[in-house]
Amino acid sequence: MRPGAALWMVWTAAVTQARMQGLNPGMIVLGIIQPAVFLAITLRTAERLDTATTQRITVAVVLTVLWNTTIWVAGGILRGEVRGGTLAANLTGAHPGYLILFGKCLGALSHAAVVIVGSTAATLLVTRTPVRVERPGWALVGAVVALLSGTVLGTLLACLFIRTHYGTQLSGVLMYPIYLVGGMLIPPDVLPEPVERFSALISLRWANAFITHAVGGSVRPGELTVLCGLTLGYAVAAVWLFGRVTHNARSEGRLVLD
Amino acid sequence: MSSTDLLGRLRGVGRFALVEFLTMNPPSIVATALLPRAVVQTLFFTVLGGVLSGADGRRFAFVGGLAMSLVAVLIGDVGEVPVADKWAGTFGRLRTGVLHPFVLFVVRCWPYPVTATALTAVTIVCVGPLTGQSGLVLPLLSWLPVYLLMALTSAATVLAAALLALGRRAELLATNAVSFGILLAGGVFLPPGRVPVVDAVGTVLPIRHGLLALRAGLDGRPFAGELAAEALVGAGWLLVAFVVTVVQARRAHRLGIDDFA
């Protein structure tokens, strides 16, 4: 397969998913209401609200909400394909089916990220909370890699959730553990040591650290390297799991071909 | 209809509610999904409260986070009660039944607040020691009836929100708006008195008065007034749910359409 064709397919899948998503009620809840409420309660509860704390909380809220969106939106894409009867067509096409899934997750999360950042900016404006971004270029690099990492995670979750009828309940279960140990709103150093070690395996922790430092004015390439490495690891796992899931689906005749 | 007949019918609806609940949440899912979520969600809010405002913040967030875990159980499933009838096209049958559709909706909701309160009891026992607040475990368990009251008032609010939005297919937005409204203005995490507009909104939402009563009780202060206010808020939202159901049923009868279409 030519790389150009693969990229075109990912792009088409991403645009299709973003258009399908629009500003539906779920997106209003996840992308608009949620960051606004999280920002309001954390900023107004913090004892000392200096510049560094405001920067840290803002970045952490955006990434926390992005994780939530990954679970609820990207994680459900494969389920949606089954419901809509389009999974069989994706799997029997000329190109690998996981590229379509990846493209759709990318479209879903890119669209959500724009909405989340917009809502966050509006909340900061309304509450008159200034946030200065010292190294905007590096902060943007971190944000793009964080988005790609979220996309790969979404692909991985979509493959997991397709195996159960209780995907919604499992989505709910997965939300808070990552809130707790993902190193975003709760700094990893307040966690017990074994949990802190586990949190080092979560890419969002490194995304949060890198972006927060870039917003504060320092660039730490080591954090970016770990973030990229973990994302690559997730991608390998996602491709493997997608192969397993589709193989099982084929052998059990559950491709919704009727 | 005799009272024996009425009781029999209500018992039948109650049994159906249990079947409906267990279909969506079999015991394995309650144990592996709902319970861990309640525990970890409360743990998250409690630790975050400590990170942002020290030991006092941790205690405040623990008591409030438990109430938020109630809401998390109720939001999806109580809202689903009328939604299920809409999608199954069974509203017409409910309208022509002996029991009023509002009674059916209310009775069908019973397993959710009960389960939510039971999960809260387990969460108190798990999260208290994990966050260094073992001393709060027994006092909070003794206040479990107040958590049950908050679960009931929240269920009434979620039901009313779902019924209000059902016609516009916006029940997901409405029920989640209730959830985030409670998180923002319910005194769950953000102490009352910080943002006046938020305080004003909170007075008509469930949880806020219940938590004020509970915190007053834990501190040995009078709490009956706030407890009554919480019950009143729940009754108010139940009245909203009743009015919406009656209006929709009459509209459907007059126009010859399915309810909430």
Could you walk me through the main structural features you see in this protein, from its secondary elements to its overall organization?
The complex is a heterodimer of chains A (258) and B (261). Chain A is an all-alpha fold and 258 residues long. Chain A has one domain. Chain A is built from eleven helices and no strands. In chain A, α2 (25-45) crosses α6 (97-126). Chain B is an all-alpha fold and 261 residues long. Chain B has one domain. Chain B is built from eleven helices and no strands. Chain B has helices at 3-24, 27-88, 91-95, 101-108, 111-130, 137-142, 144-166, 171-185, 196-202, 208-218, 224-255. In chain B, α7 (144-166) runs antiparallel to α10 (208-218) and α8 packs across α9. The longest helix of chain B has 62 residues, at 27-88. In chain B, 50% of the residues are buried. Classes of the chains: A mainly alpha (258), B mainly alpha (261). Chain A binds chain B through residues 25-26, 28-29, 33-34, 37, 40-42, 44-47, 166, 168-170, 172-173, 175-177, 179-180, 185-187, 190, and chain B through 25, 29, 32-34, 36-37, 40-41, 43-44, 47-54, 57, 72, 76, 169-170, 172-173, 176-177, 180, 183-184, 189-191, 194-195, 198. Chain A: The chain crosses the membrane at residues 28-46, 58-78, 98-126, 138-163, 169-186, 224-243. Chain A: Keywords: Membrane, Transmembrane, Transmembrane helix. Chain A: One of its GO terms (molecular function) is ABC-type transporter activity. Chain A: Residues 14-207 form the ABC-2 type transporter transmembrane domain. Chain A: It holds the Pfam family ABC2_membrane. Chain B: It comes from Virgisporangium aliadipatigenens.
